[in-house]
Amino acid sequence: MAPIAQEISKGHERKIAVLPLISRDQENASVGIWLAKQIAVNLANSVPRIELLDANSVAIPVLASKDSRHPSYDQKAVEAFAKHSGAKVIVQGSFGAFEEGLGVSLTASKKGRQEILTENAGKLNLTSEITALLVRPLKSDLPSDGVYEGGWAGVGLPKCLKCPDPGFPVDARSSHTEGRVILFVLVGLDGASHQIEVKEATSPSFARQAINAVGTWKFEPALGPNRKPVPVRVPVEISFRFRP
Q1: What's residue 156's pLDDT?
Q2: Measured at the alpha carbon of residue 80, what is the angle toward residues 92 and 4, in degrees to the nearest 5?
Q3: What is the C-alpha separation between 154 and 149, in angstroms, rounded?
Q4: How many CB atoms neighbour CB 63 within 10 A?
Q5: Which are the contacts of 167, defined by CB distance < 8 A and separation ≥ 6?
Q6: How many angstroms separate the CA atoms of 196 and 215, rounded?
Q7: How far apart are CA 229 and CA 186, in angstroms?
Q8: pLDDT of residue 49
C-alpha cells in the first residue's frame, strides 16, 4: 500500500477512486468491497488533501479475458467512470487465496490503465473480519497443483531473461501469411517453460514454431506476495510478421 500512497503524494492529482477488488469468480465480491474501503482509509490517512470518490456504488462490468485465465474490469467503462466522476487516479486490483492467507495486487493509474503510476502486491492474514465476509472458503481457490496464475492476486509475472524469437513457418513464408499464437505456459521455479498449451493459433505451423521457441526460453521466476519465487501459469502471445 505504501508505494501507491507515495506515488500519489508525489503528484498533484488528489481526486482518487478505489474500485472494489476483483476475485476469480466474484462470489466473494463483498471482500473486494471491504478491501477497497480499507485501502481508501489508508490513502486518506497517508496522502495530504486527498479527495476520495465513491466507487463502490458504481456497477462497472467485470469481463472474462480470452487471453488470460482471470477476469478484469471493462477498461472502457472505467475510463467513462473516471471522466464522469472527475477521478484523476484509479486504484484497482485483485485478490485471491495464497497459502494460508490472502494475496492482493494493486495498480494505480491515470485514464483507466493507460498510464500506470505504480503497482504493488502483498499478502494479508485471514482475519475474522475477512472470514466473516466470505461466501466460499478461500482455500477452495488454492491451485491443486501449487501453480498460481501470474499477474493476479499478489502473484507477479516471470521476467524473460533469454527469449529468442520463433522461426517463421516455411509454408506461411511461401504464401506471405502472417499469424498469431497465444500460449499458456507454466514457468517453474527453475525459470524454464513447462506444460505449454495452445490457446489460439492461426495455423498448426505457427503453433509449432511458437511452442519450439518458448520451450527454450529462460525466465527469472515470478514472485508471490510473500516475495518468494513461485511457479506460475502465464499467457504468452506471439505475433508473426512477414518480412520478405
Answers
A1: 95
A2: 25
A3: 10
A4: 12
A5: 209, 212, 213
A6: 8
A7: 13
A8: 86
The residue behind cell 529468442 is 164
Burial 110-146, CB ≥16 within 10 A → b, else e: bbbeeeebbbbbbbbeeeeebeeebeeebeebeeeee
Class of domain 159-240: alpha beta
The per-residue pLDDT for 113 is 60
Domain 2-149 superfamily per CATH:
ABC-type transport auxiliary lipoprotein component (3.40.50.10610)
Instruction: Quote the cell numbers at residue 228.
Output: 518468494
| Cα 8 to Cα 15: distance, rounded to the nearest angstrom | 10
10-residue mean pLDDT series, the chain (244 residues): 78 87 87 94 89 84 72 88 90 93 93 77 93 88 91 94 94 90 96 95 95 97 96 95 82
Place of cell 506471405: 176
pTM of the model as a whole: 0.83
Query: Which residue spans of the chain are classified as CATH 3.40.50.10610?
Result: 2-149
- Which is nearest to 239 in space by CA: 176, 173, 168? 168
How many alpha carbons lie under 13 Å from residue 72 in its C-beta half-sphere? 16
CA atoms within 13 A of residue 199's CA, in its CB half-sphere = 17
